[in-house]
Design goal:
Length: 218
């Protein structure tokens, strides 16, 4: 894929290095001379320009990109880059970094954002996921909020221990996709049995998250 990254700070450079290592073509767009350092990711194409200016993006060839990542430290800039990428250049996939969690509600399809990544929210979810038993923890929002990846951990005394996955009576809009058990990742089959301490990952709509909790006896 050809990927454009707006913002060549520590985050942008790290993303670029990973993508280059995976064989993708990467273009880094950076306005600030202090962050413009082609030697830091030599395999990437570097463009010194303002990613909020339509003409600069056109000259850089954003119309040829499959994915655009708005990774600056300024939420306003990330929103403008996302909107331009989607509306002016019809980029298929736009991913935006959310710096301030209070701005997360803005990062939607209306602003051209396909996926919003909020580091503070992800870190908080990881903490909750590691210490919470019996509560639904939202790990990630998918497709502009149409679905979520959620986790619930069974306690050691769960009445579902020893029961098959097929016996679970889950709401219609919830799908059990993975069971984490110790160091194992289990793709659940109908005959697989549950154990206390299992971490269950579901893809579900927000409306039925609490129904999952109820179905598991919490």
């Amino acid at each position: 894929m050809r990927v454009a990254i707006a913002g060549a700070g520590a985050v942008g450079r790290s993303i670029a290095q990973e993508l280059v290592s995976d064989g993708h073509q990467v273009m880094l767009i950076e306005r600030d001379r202090a962050h413009f350092d082609p030697n830091s990711v030599e395999q990437a194409e570097w463009v010194q320009a303002d990613a909020c200016e339509l003409s600069s993006l056109e000259d850089a060839g954003m119309q040829l990109c499959d994915v655009v990542i708005a990774a600056t430290g300024d939420d306003k800039v990330n929103l403008v880059v996302s909107l331009l990428a989607k509306t002016e250049f019809a980029v298929r996939r736009v991913i935006a970094r959310v710096n301030d969690p209070t701005n997360e509600w803005l990062f939607t399809e209306s602003w051209g954002v396909d996926v919003a990544v909020s580091t503070p929210r992800l870190l908080a979810a990881m903490v909750e996921e590691s210490v919470t038993i019996g509560d639904v923890v939202r790990l990630m929002t998918l497709r502009q909020g149409q679905a979520n990846l959620v986790e619930i951990t069974l306690d050691d005394a769960t009445p579902f221990a020893g029961r098959a996955v097929s016996e679970l009576s889950m709401p219609r809009d919830a799908a059990l996709v993975t069971i984490l058990r110790g160091g194992r990742v289990i793709v659940p089959q109908p005959d697989d049995t549950l154990e206390g301490g299992d971490e269950l990952l579901f893809v579900t709509t927000a409306a039925v998250e609490q129904d999952i909790k109820t179905a598991l006896g919490y």
